[in-house]
Amino acid sequence: MAIYKVTVATGDMVEAGTKNFISITLVGSYGESRQTTVSFFFQPGKEKSLSVHCGQDLGPIVLIRLHKWRLFLEDAWFCKDVRVTAPNGTLYRFPCYQWLEGVTTVEVREGSGKKLVDDKLQILKEHRRQELAARQEAYRWKNFAQGWPRCLSVDSILELDSNIQFSSIRATNFTGFLIFQGASHFLSGFLLRRTSWNSLDEMRTIFSRTRGRDIGGCL
């Protein structure tokens, strides 16, 4: 009997927790564990610990599967990371940092950086192939207008996966910044101006009021 100690961490942002059921499967070089329930209640910023019992040593743990399912209402969950300690004391880290929505299974590779040529196991090669296909599907491009740079092939940001969209905090800060800038330009007479600029110095007078402000600093 091999016993693995597992710790699952939830992100600390608003609504990161969930009341949906979460279970885990450990995948090693020699085999995989049975699907083991972690919990059905997760709080933001908190961790859940459990033991996964296996009939034999799984070898080096190369990836994990997180399974999410619900009984009634959908309740998205943001997984920060998972840590697995093998019977011999070896610690494996699996950075996740993504939302799990609906009834889904997400595979997460062990955190050490690997190149394509380093993937000796077929399961890792298949995981890389599926991940590439998913990203190609998510990031499709289209031409907005002739001569313009290409943009994402979506009609609304709401069509994007939640892991691609801004977080609620970043979106709120970005919107607030735009409102502030719009009000500043309105009060400066920029937005309602109906005549041409008299000089570059006049333009600098308007825009120097926001010089040094970086949108990225507000996100």
UniProtKB/TrEMBL annotation:
The record marks W99 as: Essential for stabilizing binding to COTL1. SMART domains: LH2. Its main location: cytoplasm. It is found in: Cytoplasm. GO terms for molecular function: iron ion binding; isomerase activity; oxidoreductase activity, acting on single donors with incorporation of molecular oxygen, incorporation of two atoms of oxygen. Pfam families: PLAT (PF01477). Coiled coil: none annotated. One of its GO terms (cellular component) is cytoplasm. Ca(2+) binds at G17, D75, A76. Residues 114-219 form the Lipoxygenase domain. InterPro entries: LipOase, LipOase_C, LipOase_C_sf, LipOase_mml, PLAT/LH2_dom, PLAT/LH2_dom_sf, PLAT_LOX_verte. GO terms for biological process: lipid oxidation. Keywords: Calcium, Cytoplasm, Dioxygenase, Isomerase, Lipid metabolism, Metal-binding, Oxidoreductase. Pathway: Lipid metabolism. Residues 2-114 form the PLAT domain. Belongs to the lipoxygenase family. This is LOXE3 isomerase.
